[in-house]
Amino acid sequence: QVQLVESGGGLVQVGGSLRLTCADSGRTFSNYIVGWFRQALGNERKFVVAIRTNGASTDYADSVKGRFSISRDNAKNTVYLQMNSPKPEDTAVYFCAAAPRRPLYSGTYSRESLYTYWGQGTQVTVSS
Q: What does the pLDDT read at residue 127?
């Protein structure tokens, strides 16, 4: 069983930085692809970034490339989302999610339907 808990959200100014954490209390976290999604008020949830099990491969949404970075520490059952140079449009509730490996699937992990487990989200507000 995977239980995801996000933390690190809050208020950040434009040009600042913030690091979100997604932690799992289970024993199989390293077997899952982990993604971050976000949902702004009144909008649908959208993909942000995903990282493969070994941390060597990632997928990024165009809107965050060059500003956000994802990493994972499997020994700590944790994935990090480093948000640099945030913009007001990055304001949203951020969710982490875990997807099982699919050996026959070679696409990106940007679709919500690929993910089985979800955290409850953490609010990020970027002020100008």
A: 97
- Walking along the chain (128 residues) 10 residues at a time, the average pLDDT comes out as 94 96 89 97 97 94 98 96 97 97 91 97 97
Alpha carbon of residue 93 to chain centroid:
11
What number of other Cβ atoms are within 10 A of residue 101's Cβ? 10
Phi-psi region of 114 (alpha: psi -120 to 50; beta: other; left: phi over 0): alpha
Position 50, amino acid: A
First to last CA, the chain: 40
Residue 15 half-sphere exposure, CB side, CA atoms within 13 Å?
1
Strand boundaries in 10-121, DSSP class E: 10-13, 17-24, 32-39, 46-51, 58-60, 68-73, 78-84, 92-100, 117-118
Is the separation of the CB atoms in 49 and 64 below 8 Å? yes
